[in-house]
Amino acid sequence: MDKLEIEGGTGLRGKVTISGAKNAALPVMAASILTPGEHYIYNIPILRDITTMGKLLAHMGMGYHLENEEVILQSNKITSTEAPYDFVKTMRASVLVLGPMLARMGEAKVSLPGGCAIGARPINLHIMGLEKMGAQINLTEGYIHARARKLKGASICFDIPTVTGTENLMMAATLAEGETLLENAACEPEVVDLANALKSMGAKIEGAGTNTITITGVTSLNPLKYTIVADRIETGTFMIAAAITGGDVVINRCRPEQSDALINKMREAGVDITVHKDSLTVRGPERIQSIDIKTAPYPGFPTDMQAQFMALMSIADGSSLITESIFENRFMHVAEIRRMGATIRVEGSTATVRGVKNLVGAPVMATDLRASASLVLAGLAAKGKTIIDRVYHIDRGYEKIEEKLQGLGSRIRRIR
Ligand code: EPZ
User: Fold this and answer.
1) If you ran DSSP here, which 8-state letter would residue 320 be given?
2) Residue-level pLDDT at 113
3) Is 157 a catalytic residue?
4) How many angstroms does the Cα of residue 369 sit away from the middle of ligand 1?
5) Second label for 71, Cα 20 to 30 Å away, from 188, 318, 343, 397?
6) What confidence score (pLDDT) does residue 114 get?
7) Mean pLDDT calculated for residue range 288-309
8) Structurally, what CATH architecture does the domain formed by 22-227 represent?
9) Using CA positions, which residue lies closest to atom 24 of ligand 1?
């Protein structure tokens, strides 16, 4: 298993370019199931999760070709409507094939995603919505068996906003008979990107980006030719890398308006951030101020930035309260950052971080994607050497992270 070795203490300087958003690319790739043809998707990040989705679509009979940052999918023949456990267990986002498969083929057999490090992450709301649209769904032997001769438009209200739940049902509704209303829908930019991709295929969708989305079913769609939005979580991660090392970094090809909550909180913490149209300049202060955050659905503070922000607060001046309100177990990084000298106490869904002067490098272990990003950030700031094990977690969501950080002057290398 690869490891990352980081010699910390260097202030990052220079420019970095943000890749396409993993959490937009995955649903857009799944949308290619909806209609036969040759699909071209651009600005795709080169990540393990993208390859996993490509292999799953190929397993279903689709042509899949990834070259540089472009993926070509050929969906003329679907020879299997099954998403086996082996795929779903490595990437829960495989569940995104359920809605489009049901809409196109009238049936789908998708393994129930197990839990994961950050929580139980059920998909009951995905299933509730599809049943309202007329699907017969049985859960047997760990699989979702779904059938629907023709999905019908329905009025669906989510108990809580679910990103992939909104995406699954939005895709299914594009080919359903009549109108579908999604209420308490997720507003994340990745949901909007998927809606834009579906509209470019000829789908009729109103309200994406708000809590109420209306989809009017059509009889057929055209193949995709679409460019994926920039990754706001990679953007936020590099913003914190600049701040935590007292650096000065220009972040290019990003969408600053999608990171308002994080920008506001980082400015409150004393970080100097200049916003341009599609780039940001971030300068880290001498000393970071401690502030409190609470994660929330978009446009609130993103749960996917909670671990990274905790690394920043671990060397801030004072105490900060970090409350995780989306997932029930998203503090796996705490024990590891503590090994580097942080003083953090967890009580239920709130972590109290008492800032220390500096962290000290140590051997640590990644447990999930964003936790591993927080360990990299802590390693960049720490005095001495940090070795991060199980780096495959980070490769799922960050394209060429060590190369991008080396380009900013950090002393980081991958040990194969
Ligand atoms: C998406 O996961 C993202 N993944 C996650 O990013 C992100 O953390 C999450 O949204 C929240 O923003 C992708 O887009 C591929 P949810 P998703 O359904 O859709 C509960 C990363 O780091 N819920 O919005 O699985 C659920 O348990 C990943 O890139 C139900 O109860 O998250 C959670 O508490 C990690 N029933 C809350 O809703 C359901 O049917 C939000 O989950 C669905 C969800």
Assistant:
1) E
2) 87
3) no
4) 13
5) 188
6) 73
7) 98
8) Alpha-beta prism (3.65)
9) 162
